[in-house]
Structure formats: C-alpha cells, structure tokens
Amino acid sequence: MRRRRGELLTALPFLLPAYALFLLFLVWPALEALWLSLHRENLFGRGREWVGLGNFQEVLARPEFWKSALLTLKFALVVAPLELVLGLLAALLVYRPYPGVAFFRTLFFLTTAVPTAVAAVAWGWFLHPVGGWANRALAGLGLPPQPWLTSPDLALYTLGVITAWSGVGFTAILLTAGLQNIPEEVLEAATVDGASPWTRFFRITLPLLSPTLFLVGLLVVLKSLTAFGQIHLLTRGGPAESTMVWIYRVYQDAFFNFQVPLAAAEAFLLFLVLLLLAALQFWLLGRRVHYAA
Amino acid sequence: MRLRKLLPTYLMASAYAFLLVLPLFTLLSASLRAEGDLYAPGPLEPYREALSRYPLPRFLLNSLLVSVAVTLGVLATSLLAAYALTRLRFRGREALFGLAVALLLVPGEVTFLPLYLLVDRLGWLDTYAALTVPFLASPLGVFLLRQYLRTLPEDYFDAARIDGATHWQVLRHVALPLSAPALGALAALTFIGTWNMYLWPLVVTKSREMQTAQIAVNFILNEEVARWNVVAAGAILVLLPTLIAFLLAQRAFVRGIALGGLKG
Amino acid sequence: MGVQGFFLAKAGLLAALLLGTAQAQRITVEFWHSMGGVLGEATEALVKEFNASQSRVQVKAQYVGSYDDGINKLLAALRAGRGFPHVIQVYDIGARIMADSGAVVPLEDLARKNGFDLDHLLPQPRNYYTVDGKLFGLPFNSSNPILYFNMAAFQEAGVPFKPTWSLKDLEEAARKLTKKDAQGRTVRYGLSIPIDSWFVEQISYNSGEYFCNNENGRRARATAVAFDNPAAVAFLDTYARLVREGVAANTGRNWADSQSLFAQGQAAIASYSTASLTGVLRQVGNRFPVRTAYYPYLKERNGVAIGGAALYVLKGFSEAETQGAWEFVRFLLEPRTQAKWHLATGYFPVVKGVTELPEVRQAHVRQPNYTTAIQQLATSKVNNASAGCLMGAFPEIRQYVQAAWEEILKGKPAQEALKEAKAKADAALERYNRSVAGR
C-alpha cells in the first residue's frame, strides 16, 4: 500500500509552495480565461451569455486572424534562422579557450541582460529616420535612408532582426555549451585522418551538435511566437497592420477593441499551437536521445 | 594556440562584437547629447533631466525590490519542487512535471485579466504584493532545476540518506550546494525576467510610487516626444542594474544555463 | 483645576471636536488623468490650487498612463465593481462608451442640482459630449487641429500667409515650398501630417461631411461609418500623391517624428493639435518664426470638431463624495482656472469670458498663435457635422482608418481602401451596438 503511494506525503511540503502558487496564479486564471472565451459580454463586463465555441468560430472565420497567423509564421522564419546562425557563429568563435576569449564571451552574451524595453528604445533610436546611425551611415554611403519601422514592407523584418538580436546572446550561451560537450578526441581523430576544417564541421561537429541545435531552435521559435514588448514599443502592430502578429492581435482585441472574450479565444488558440510545438519537441528529442545513446 | 592562427578568429569576433553592441552604444551616445545636438554631432544634462522629471530612483527601487523578492521566491519554491520531482518517488510525479512544462507555454496576455480580477479581490492592487506574489513560483524554475538535479550523481544523495539524513537535510546540505550553478543561472534569469515585466506592472499599479522601471521607459518614451536624449538616458539607467547583475553573475549564469537547459 | 481649568478643558474638547469633524469632513476625491509632461505639470498645479483653496475636499490625482491605458484600467475596475476613481479623464472618442456604460453621473444632472448654468460653456465642446440630449462629461482639455507654418520657408518661396486654406490651396503651397537637391532628393518637404485618423475625421467635419451615419450619431445612434465621403477621399488621395512626388513626408503614425521634422525646418507646413503648440514652439526655438492657421477643408469651410478629453464623474460613491467631485469640476470651470490651464498648455478655454481676462489678453498679444484655435472655433458653424462623430468602437475603428491610410500610401486608391475599412468598421460598430443593447 505504502509502496504504491510512494513518498507522496513526504513530497507534499516540497511541492506545495510552487504548485499552490501555480494553481492559484496560473492555472486558475488560465481556466477562467478559457471560461471567458466561451461567453460573450459587452465591454463593461455585463450581459454575459454562453456562446460555446462561438468565439472560436468567429475568430477562425476572420481573415485578419489568418493574416496574423501568417505574419507570426513569417516572423518566426526570420528570427529563428537568424538567431541560430548568428548564435552558432558566435559560439564557434568563443567555445575554445584562448587569450581574450572571456572578453568576447561577455560581449556576445550581453544581449541577454538587455530588457526588451531598453532594446526597443536602443534600436528605435538606431533606426530613427532623421537622427539614427543606420540612416546616417546609409546617407554617408550615398544611399537613400530606409523607413525601417515605418514601411509596411520592412517593419516586420526589422522587428525580426531586433528580436533576434535580443535573443542571440542566450542562444550563443546554449550553443557554446553544446559545442563544449563535443568530445575533443573525435575531432582530433578526424584531423589526424586528414579531414579539412569544413569536413570536420559538417560531418562531425554539426551532427553531434544537432540535438542541442534542435532544442535551441525550438526554444527560439517558441519565444518568437510570443514576442510582444518590442512590437508594442516600436510599431504597435502597424504600419498597415504589417506587424500585427498573433499575440499582438490578442492584446489589441483585449485592450483597444475591448473584446475580451474574443481575445481570450485567440490567446487560447495560440496556447494550443505552443503546446503542439512543445509536444513535438519532446517527442522528437526523445527519439534522438534514443539514437545517440 | 599560436597567435597567427587566432588572427582570423579575433577579427571576426571583433567585427561581430562591434555590430552586436552598436545599438546599445548609440543609445549611450544619445543619452549624452544636449537636445539641439541630437541630430547633429555635449554631457550629463539628459541624465539630470531624466532623473529630475521622473521619479526614476523610485521606479528603479521598486523594480529592484520586486525583482529580488521574486528571485528569492523562485529559487526557494523551484528547488523544493525540483527536489521532490527528482529524489522522491510517487505516483503522478511525471504528470506534475508535465504540468509545469505546459504552464511554461501559457502566454501572460491570456491570464492577465482574470489574474487582475483575482488580485483586486485580494485587495492587492497598487501594492508590492500584486507585483510579487503571483510570480514567486516559476514553471521555468521548476523545469531548469529538475533537469539539473537529474544530472547530479545519485551517490551523493544516497550516501547522505544512508547516513540517516532527512530529506530536508539532504536538500540543505547536498542538493543546495551542488545546484549552485543552476541556482545562479536561474537567479540571473529570474531577476532579468522580473525586471523586464511590462504589461503586468502597468496594469496593477496606479500611483507613481508603485510603478516599475520598465513602465518608466514606456512612460518617458511617450512623454518625451522626440527628446531622444532624455529617453536614452532613462533607458540606460534602467539597463544598468541588469547589466551589472549579468556581468557579476556571468560565469555562473553561463554554466548554469547550459547545464540546465541542455540535458534531455 | 478650578473654573479656568474647566474652561480650558471644554475649549480643548470643543477644538478637538471641531478639528476632528473638520478632518472627518475632508473628503478624498480620486482623480485619474492621462496628462504627462508639460500637461501633467499643469494638471498637478490645478489640483494643488484646488486643494489649497478650500478644506472640504482633497483631490488625489493619479497619472494612469495614456488615454488607452486609462480607459482600460477603468473598464477593468468597472468589471470588478470596485477600484474606480471619483473622476476620470477619458478621450474624446470615448464619449459614446462612457454614456453607454451606465457608470457616469451626467454633468448635466450635477449642474442642475447645484444651480450651475451650462450656458457658460462654449457650444461646441458642450455639444460634443452631449449624448441623447444630456451633457455627460466636462470637456476638460479641448483642442482643435490647426496648421503650423515655417514662415522663413514661406518667405523664401514667396508664398503669402493666409488664415484659411482649402485642400487645393494647401497642395499648391506645399509644392511651391518643397526644395529638392540636384539629385532630386527632397531637402525640405512642403507638408507633413502624422498618420492619425483624427485628421481624416476633421477634414470630413470641416468640409460639412459626416464621419458616421445618423448625422454623426447625433440624431440617433450611429450604426455605420461614413468616412468614405468625398472630403476624406480627396484628402487621402492628395496626401498620397504628394508623398509620391516627394512633396509630403511620410513620418508614420508618430506625431513626435513629424514634429521633429518640422522643428528642424525640414517640413514647411504641418498639422497638429493646438495642444501641441507649446511643445512645438519649444522645439523650434528661434530657428524660424512659426505661424498657425485654420485646418483645411474641401470646398467650403464648415467647422472642426473638438478633440482632447473630458472628465467624467462616476457613480457608486456617497452623496458627500460625489458632491466633492462636483466641487472640483466646478473649480475647473471657473474662468480664472481655465485661463491658467489655457496658457500653460495651449488647449483652449471651454467656458465663456476667459479670453477677455487681462492675463489672457496679454499672453495672446505676446504669442498670437494661441488664439488661432479659439478663433477657428468661434468662426465655425455649429451643426451636427462640426459636432463630431459619436459612436461606440471608435478606438477600434480609428485603427482601420489608419491602416487604410497606410495602404493608400502604398498605392491603393483612397476610395477602395476606405471602402474596405468601412466594411470592417461597420462590423465592429454592429458588434458594439449589439453588446450594449441588452444593457
């Protein structure tokens, strides 16, 4: 009997603080938000009536929603490769010890310490149409200034770059650790066998790094799907709704259009997508680990 | 390693570092210019303005208090839970862990409104309680520490148990010191993450006295129409604490993140 | 102790009683506002003065962020049923929402109860916030759109100043004022207007058109938008044309970016609110002289609607507290107070009798630009077009208009973009009206 329950009783006081807080401040509000998404009410919170999946149907029927979903996908496709490639490059430059590596490491990992609001302001100024260095540099080269954040064609990509910049420090840290975990002997053996640096990289390093790359990649994608601060501070979903990604639409619907139940439905759908991606990660990773072992 | 072989590395690394830090650098330079010169190519006046027109010290203090409180809370609750999830056996253990992971994915914008109503019902609006208590436990914390604890050799723990230690004692004398890197990383992450919170403090605080540093940046940005030097000064001041925290904790941070985040 | 002692004790007791009751009677009125920067300082000054002028009511002012933040906080508080303030500042486009909320004590009722004659108010601000025949809010910071001119540029290009401008005149002047370099790149733009639905609304009103149906929602509740009117179409098409020619600058939605351009002398004509006056003058410094003129119209000038925000007194408090809130509002309506507010900010006074005050006259002589909005208002026709549109879902609808403007700048014809926006706007409006119907 005792064996079956295991050590649950002993475990309780350890689990309680964290899980009680989770229950009260995460699970309960999430459930209440879900409950809200099954109703309709006016912006004053009155006239609440049950509509079942009505809000979900409405959300899925709106072209703007699909536009936002597409924008979110585009955004992730900009951020993820950029962050991974740059992070990998950075990691390759600093994973081995050499004089001065600590200095470079600090700089490369620095962006982790920059809060979103500060990053947004820094880039906002950097890309400022009149005084920003980016356009001044272009002008110096005789090129026309670019409307980085005010053009519907550019804004999303600009924000993608900013988001990648913010996250590249963290990615670099993880990839550095990943590279450091690759046993030196394998690489040395390959060098002895006459393999060139390129071959070593593509045939040995990369495959051995791939579980880490995969994990980091998925983390990056998940993060990019919920990027909010920089969009709010720099473009507010514009111009011409070109940066109205999923999560920003949720915010917009909740706080500008005062359509809280609808926003709750949109948010829940986003949550489902995130859940799916995470489940995918665990399943695929599980299989890989199997292989590696 | 021979320096000649390192030269390309140094070159590339320097180039990358320069480009990476550039936006922050321009922010710093903007913060040191007088207003008229913003658009042309003088010093601390913008800082004085940022500090005098806005209760920045108070904002910074609030952020500091809240971030420290939440960090300590997260460290404690996560270590406790992670210990139970790795060193104790009971039914539903994996399910509970799965719950923590699933909670990682719930975006704040979903739960904000019901959470606000709950906090209001508790009478915590415009208090430190609202800014801290809901975040004293973090799914990320539980995830990271559990992953990390799993990589520690069982022997240390078993040895202590055989010697007759209670779980509390094992936690204190074995798990705690051994998890130092992961705890350091989590502390840095949580501190920065809490410092970074934006939407929530905006919503639950009313009075100037209670508002946090991120709101200050938004606030200054909205108020100081086109006076980027003051905005920049404010932003730099808000950046400094996390920057310093990062620099101090960097090594532990890096080790902990990598170790915790990578295994399975 | 003796008789003296007894008297002292009694006096002391009486004093304590009086003091105690006086303190007990000091009512706290919570006031949420969205005035930051210069405007915030002016607001705080008024509050301080009110508190010092009497001992019954103590107003506690809170800056709750932007108008959007403020109204969101309010709606959240209303849902919770508690935590809302006695007085709150809500933007102009929130007029219908506030009236529908059922949470407001109409100013009309308070005025009648306290014997305040609402005819003291200027007609336009009063009309704007009058819903279903009742004045709901106090038009606290009321503004108009006006044109800002870089007179040095005007002189250089030989363009004469005049107070009223048709859209066509503006286009011609902007072309003359544009300066390009040898490679054809614009060195000085002729025109800069931020992408804000407000300007589209105002050109409609000023040209005698409506922005929403049922005569701007004034005759009956608005059920559809009317922003695909000729004035709006012409305005947007013209602006897009000028941007393509490099005559007008597209600085996006941010007013600050457009204002920097103007202040640096890189845009000869701009349009902002009269409330921006103090800020713009400060930014320009003594780079060039600035003059202001009335907002343009399509064919014939009708009149602009007011913008800004109003103060609302909320229900749910004791008689004494609501009375205290009214006293604060009453204080703000006094000509002397309005004068101070006007001169510190650029918003125009909403009550009669302010412009004649000596301090106001003198200030106007020193800086005549402050009178432009006042005169524009005084010479505007008072009708439902210039009353401004009253409709729910306004904040959302503004987003659609702004997105349409951006599409038009990308090349879509205005008629088409506005038609698409109208479809979305009508849907939003219908949703809103449905949701408040069963209230």
UniProtKB/TrEMBL annotation, chain C:
Transmembrane segment boundaries: none
In which organism is this protein found? Thermus thermophilus
Give the source lineage, highest ranks first.
Bacteria, Thermotogati, Deinococcota, Deinococci, Thermales
User: What's this protein's family per the entry?
Assistant: Belongs to the bacterial solute-binding protein 1 family.
Give the location in the cell.
Answer: Cell envelope
Q: What is this protein called?
A: ABC transporter substrate-binding protein
Would you indicate the residue range of the signal peptide? 1-24
Q: Can you list the GO cellular component terms from the UniProt entry? A: cell envelope
Q: Which Pfam families does the annotation name?
A: SBP_bac_8
What UniProt keywords apply to this chain's record, in alphabetical order?
Answer: Plasmid, Signal, Transport
